[in-house]
Amino acid sequence: MRTANAIAVWVSAESGQNLIKASRFDASTETWSSPITIGSDHSGDAHVAVTADGKAIAVWTNSNTQNTIYSNMFDGSTWLGEQIVDTNGTYQSQYYPKWPSMNWGMRLQYGQVQGGNLARVIRSATFSLVSNTWTAATNISTDYGLGNSFLGSPNISTNATGIAVAGWIYEDPTAPQYTLQANRYDSGWLPSGSEETITTSNTDTIQFAPLAISVAPNGNALTLWPQYNGTETPTQHYSIMTSTRNFGTSLWGSPVQISGIGDTDI
User: Fold this and answer.
1) CATH class of 85-257
2) Is the full-model pTM beyond 0.90?
């Protein structure tokens, strides 16, 4: 059986600290390297993506003074050192970094940014493997302002040509109602405030769990999400829903239920 090189990252609680550790699997010797520290104390929620030529980017949240997204690049032989992804002080604190696994030259990452006790905006930054630098982060959702909304459970996927689709859950606290929103990247994100609607509930009894996203080679996208309907029985279960995005028309199709009611526990 042939194997390939691999990199694992995780949060290690040791000596009263929460550190980001990494280890590399060498396929030629079929051994893992000794773990090394790539992220400082107060870290958590780590993710990693590896390129075909052996480079890797790890991202995580550090909560030392405030929740801030950090990263570290493995250049094929060594880790180059942690750095802050988004230094804009207007948008703090930052949560839930997501990192699509793909092999094109620039990488995408985005997270939920909070103000007060509630999230206000989804942001994205682009990484260069050549210069080991991030572009200035940009808003890819409406900025709902401090303490006025909830955006959560972000996810992102890309294809080999660099087209990406990001999605998240938005709760309008004045309705209340829940909406699955999305944005797409094709040489740039749709401007803030231009995010797309996948589906919206018309009552607070219909709620969505985190969605999964896949982007096809032609740019079409597919989403899956668990959906709770409090008027159905049994109410403690969810059903799996799906919707597709047509790249040519930029439209999401009507949601389709692909599981039976109550088939899914989460």
Assistant:
1) mainly beta
2) no
